[in-house]
Amino acid sequence: MKVRVDSEKCMGHQACSIAAPEAFGADDFGDAVVLLPDGEVPPELEQKVLLAQANCPEEAIIVEA
Length: 65
Known about the structure:
Elements: E1 2-5, H1 15-19, E2 24-26, E3 32-34, H2 46-55, E4 61-64
Antiparallel strand pairs: 1-4, 2-3
């Protein structure tokens, strides 16, 4: 599973970093960034990343199988 953030949609609510702080952080403008190398989600974080995606108000978290 891979994850990325659509920077055009992200408004910096940081719901993703609350749900999955191991996977998401913020850039200098407060917008979400993926902290995982190449966006590769380890199996132990998959549920947290899916929760982050579900809780994003702008639907800016994109998960690809």
